[in-house]
């Protein structure tokens, strides 16, 4: 069972949400993933994640926010929904 | 889907794509201030003087046109999710055509000789053709559900109308023919330029950048859905009134359409001010203050415009037109662009450094990239320049202090932008030297 850290960045000014996400992924342990809660889809974060070896999956969780799952590439235990990459 | 829209990125253009435009823009405004100092109060004798035409185009094409073209090149991939094809080549071509084009047009006005105007027409016409073509194609591909995309589409259509009317007027100015409807075409040219291109672009972009950067709630839904389209239709109707046969009917139609359009823009300004009052963070912020000042100036210029339409006596006085133009261009448009530059430029530098400095050094934060005291000083210079400029419509001698304050403000804006760019270059050099050591 993978563990999740939750990071809620709603209401923060750019680039704080990106800074916090980049800091948070640094300390992810094997088998752990990050669930980022944001009022919009942080598309600018994705290339920075890819560059650092992380995958992401964005879900429009509700009317007013997105949830983005982030995990280290190759960490099968942390990948959501049994995703293999 | 009603989620607030986001910055999307995968093809974010290299930093110089928008920055070359941002760094050029204040220099044109500085040139406008120097011209105002040179010509002095006589500028306010008539709006048809060549020096006034030169000065106006330095502001509209040079400052606003440059900054808005640069901002759009950056925002199309980011806000609309649809990048401009070949961004580096397009930005370089547009920049290289527009800069000498503006200077040639302005020189032609000042010297009173036709050939620089014709050269300016060729350069500006082709520069805007490349820009509108590239931006239009990107907007064509972008998802239609996004209100910013819709706003930008109408804005680009407004730009095309402005340029076409401008080229007609310039060919009349530099050619051997006389346009009978010169006054009406000039009024249409500036209506499309200011309310169409500038106004609709600010409105379209605001739907995303105001909630995102000024931390306000989202705009109430009917506004993003209807306003830009409604205003565009009003501008079309405004143009169509020229076709009416009788002068009386024409005047009444212009009055009706003008009042409705003013109500639309006033609604936008009022809603933006209200959203800013409901922002989540309470500290004052330079961009927020620039926008608040800009929206108040927009409301004042609309009130003056409406008063002028309703009371013909007021419309006949020159002072009224000058005040309206100063409030709209320097008060509203320059403030909105200036304020937004202070968010976009440090953000872009932060973003590109974040990618460039990975594993090499810590990325400086936004406040280290663009220093707060410098921004505040420039903001106060601008806030003092605008009222003095507006007052110069009544007391023309005030054009001297107004031009000095405005020129100083633009010089400081240019300095602030260069200092931020220097931070970028310094860190890129750090990354390069680290790269070469690791090889």
Task: Give the key terms.
heterodimer; A: 85 residues; alpha+beta; Translation Initiation Factor IF3; 4-stranded mixed sheet; 2 helices; 4 strands; 21% helix; B: 439 residues; mainly alpha; 14 helices; disordered N terminus
Task: Provide a compact summary of the structure.
The complex is a heterodimer of chains A (85) and B (439). Chain A is α+β, with helices and mostly antiparallel strands and 85 residues long.
Descriptive overview:
- Chain A is built from two helices and four strands.
- By secondary structure, chain A is an alpha+beta fold.
- Chain A has a single domain, classed as TusA-like domain (Translation Initiation Factor IF3).
- The two termini of chain A are 17 Å apart.
- The model of chain A has no long low-confidence stretch (mean pLDDT 89).
- By secondary structure, chain B is mainly alpha-helical.
- Chain B has a domain at 283-428.
- Residues 1-10 of chain B have low confidence and may be disordered.
> Pairing-aware structural class of the strands and helices of chain A?
alpha+beta
Strand content of chain A: 35-45%
What helical percentage do the residues of chain B reach? over 70%
Structural class of chain B: mainly alpha
Integer average pLDDT of chain A: 89
Which ranges of chain A are low-confidence, i.e. pLDDT below 50, for 5 or more consecutive residues?
none
As an assembly, this protein is heterodimer
Shape, per Cα inertia axes of chain B: globular
H/E order of the elements of chain A? EHEHEE
Report the mean per-residue pLDDT of chain B as an integer.
92
Note the total helix count of chain B.
14
């Amino acid at each position: 069972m993978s563990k999740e850290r939750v990071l809620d960045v709603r209401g923060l000014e750019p680039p704080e949400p990106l800074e916090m996400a980049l800091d948070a992924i640094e300390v992810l342990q094997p088998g752990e993933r990050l669930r980022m809660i944001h009022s919009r889809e942080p598309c600018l974060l994705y290339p920075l994640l890819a560059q650092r070896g992380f995958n992401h999956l964005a879900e429009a969780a509700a009317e007013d926010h997105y949830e983005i799952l982030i995990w280290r590439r190759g960490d099968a235990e942390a990948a959501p929904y049994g995703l293999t990459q | 889907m009603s989620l607030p829209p986001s910055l999307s990125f995968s093809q974010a253009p290299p930093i110089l794509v928008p920055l070359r435009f941002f760094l050029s823009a204040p220099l044109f405004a500085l040139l406008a201030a120097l011209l105002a100092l040179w010509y002095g109060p006589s500028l306010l004798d008539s709006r048809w003087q060549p020096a006034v035409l030169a000065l106006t185009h330095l502001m509209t094409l040079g400052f606003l046109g440059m900054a808005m073209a640069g901002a759009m090149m950056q925002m199309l991939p980011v806000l609309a999710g649809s990048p401009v094809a070949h961004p580096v080549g397009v930005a370089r071509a547009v920049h290289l055509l527009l800069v000498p084009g503006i200077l040639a047009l302005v020189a032609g006005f000042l010297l009173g000789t036709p050939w620089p105007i014709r050269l300016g027409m060729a350069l500006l016409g082709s520069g805007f053709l490349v820009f509108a073509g590239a931006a239009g194609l990107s907007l064509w591909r972008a998802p239609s559900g996004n209100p910013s995309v819709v706003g930008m589409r109408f804005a680009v259509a407004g730009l095309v109308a402005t340029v076409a009317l401008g080229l007609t007027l310039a060919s009349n100015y530099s050619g051997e023919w006389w346009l009978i409807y010169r006054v009406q075409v000039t009024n249409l040219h500036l209506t499309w330029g200011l309310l169409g291109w500038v106004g609709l672009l600010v409105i379209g972009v605001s739907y995303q950048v105001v909630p995102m950067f000024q931390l306000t709630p989202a705009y109430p839904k009917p506004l993003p859905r209807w306003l830009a389209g409604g205003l565009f239709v009003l501008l079309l109707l405004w143009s169509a009134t020229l076709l009416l046969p009788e002068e009386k009917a024409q005047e009444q139609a212009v009055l009706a359409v003008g009042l409705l359009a003013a109500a639309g823009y006033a609604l936008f300004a009022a809603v933006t001010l209200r959203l800013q009052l409901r922002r989540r963070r309470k500290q004052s912020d330079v961009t927020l203050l620039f926008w608040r000042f800009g929206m108040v100036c927009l409301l004042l210029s609309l009130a003056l415009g409406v008063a002028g339409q309703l009371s013909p006596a007021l419309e006949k006085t020159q002072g009224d037109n000058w005040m309206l133009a100063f409030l709209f261009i320097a008060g509203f448009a320059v403030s909105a662009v200036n304020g937004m530059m202070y968010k976009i430029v440090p953000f872009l530098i932060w973003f590109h450094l974040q990618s460039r400095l990975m594993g090499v050094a810590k990325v400086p934060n936004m406040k280290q990239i663009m220093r707060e005291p410098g921004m505040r000083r420039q903001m106060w210079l601008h806030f003092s320049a605008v009222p003095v400029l507006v007052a110069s419509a009544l007391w023309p001698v005030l054009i001297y202090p107004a031009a000095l304050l405005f020129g100083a403000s633009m010089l400081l804006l240019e300095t602030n932008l260069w200092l931020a760019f220097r931070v970028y270059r310094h860190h890129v050099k750090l990354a390069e030297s680290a790269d070469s050591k690791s090889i």
